[in-house]
Model the fold of this input.
Amino acid sequence: MTFGLGKQLRPCLRVVTFIVVFALLSLLYMVEQSLPRHFEHVATSIIEETNASENIDRLKRFLVWSSKCKIPDADPYQKSVMKLMKPAEPINCSNKAPLTYVVSVTNTSQYKLVIDTNLKNNLGSCKHLENETILHPEVEFILVKCHSEQAIASGKNKRKEVYSNMHAVVPIKEEVKWKLETNKSSKHPRRLSVLLLGLDSISRLNMIRKMPKTVSYLTQTGWVELKGYNKVGDNTLPNLMALLTGYNMKEIKRSCWPSMDAKFDDCPFIWKNFSKQGYITIFTEDEPTISTFNYHKTGFVNPPTDYYLRPYLLAAEQHLTTKMKDSMAVCLGPVSTADHILHYVYNFLSTFKDALYFGLMWLNNFSHNNPNTPGAMDSRMVSFFKDLVQIGTLNSSMIVFLSDHGMRFGKIRETSSGWLEERLPFCYVWVPEWFRKENPAAYRNVIQNGNHLVSPFDLHLSLRNILDSNTEDSTPWNAMNTTSGCSSCMDLFSDTTEDRLCEDAGITPHWCTCYEYRSVPTDEKVVQKVAKFVVNEIHDYFKNRHPAVPTDLCATLQVHTIVGAKIKLPHDGEHVSYNDYLITFLTTPGKALFESTVRLWGHDSMELQGKISRLNSYYSQSRCIADSELKPFCFCVK
Done:
């Protein structure tokens, strides 16, 4: 990154420009009383009450209903959850409005920094402010600082910072101009741009609870909700990689990301395919320390997309005052972190509204750690979507508004519906009116798939379908694609079929919400054996990890208490030679709460079905190691 000085605004205002150089960036309703124990799967009580002839009632009580998949529609406002809900406090970053802002210069591709003349008095007696400064054409990010000089006892002047802020703009770079020319000269039929908008850790139910204005707006304006959208991995990374690459994590580690220290540059992100077809690309994610590709990871050595906001956010955290809430930086200077990103995305979409683009925005700061804080952004997200309407984004783009999963740990995860909430994030899809008219069968399938089981792999294939429809020798909107992470998955524009198993959507048994479960006594020998097996798997995980963690850092865990155990019931007409146990237990030392699905073949042969989930917080217990995949299982002995 190189640093250049912009035009100096005399003694009171100094503008420092950050010019990004690519080579230097390394960077169901349910009755609670019917649940026999605290962790009972909500599906059990609902399904037992359902009669085979109640077809209409089933549609009301289930998100997905078929002979192979029954996902209950849980009540968002059940008592065990609502006692944890609190009103969201507004995100107030400053008592004063920002002094500066950036606007585009009419009929040019340039920007200018503007000082709000109505706010000059906020700075005291400063007299030498210039109202506008034209930015250099290559400038993307600007840091603005304002100082006042005060005389002190020694006779010298002391500089006091009275204002600082940063702005991100979207100049038309030389490397994207060929894409604009390609778009203009293309004789291909009308093509869709793609915009992925993500909010971290928000379940479908918590979206209904905490962002009702957003849900109402999307529903009333014709967005399609994917009610059976089921995650495929534990945290953000596997779910985003499935969406962006079509690979599961085993394939990612084998093909392009062999270790935590390896870069992600060589992975087959679908934005590379869109870029080759002339799409202008953008990726932005807040919280750069814990972001998807950088938390205890190397991230990208080179910028992965044409426009990439990570350098800006790193600089903002260094040079601006941050305000923390729930360990997240909700404010960068006088502006909320979310607004920094939403403004940037809006500027990108405005600049390239007549071009083809692929965009990914991911926000963590107001939803990652607290299920209540999304409420503070409810109205803001509605206004953002309305802004997109004004600039024509909804007339040119397929938009997917989604989360990666619900809350994975904490008190809400321990409620009766927490198991479902973790696995069922919200997901809404928009396609333009012209697309609906030109492709009625494809749009009809999108609507139908709103009531079917759907996964991130299906979304990936939908993006692939858009790519394939752009080639002259393809038949648009046909389901010819497959992905190595899920050979049986299908895109949303095709009929995924109602009678679908989780394995058909690339969802492993541990994350699958389609099954019914029956409780089994926790003192049964087989249950005790399953719990010990899971703990032994944790020990083996440490032993086989490369590089290995020193054995004296983390304690050896033992089963303390089995909290709950359930056995999966087969689908109608299904015959299996195994039993799947879903078991929740506490370990000692540390009282870690784990959940795991174990397949039992016969009496002794056992096999984990997916990952082992950690349900309570472990941040303070695992500080002695940096390995993010081992942290949930480590109780530091020192």
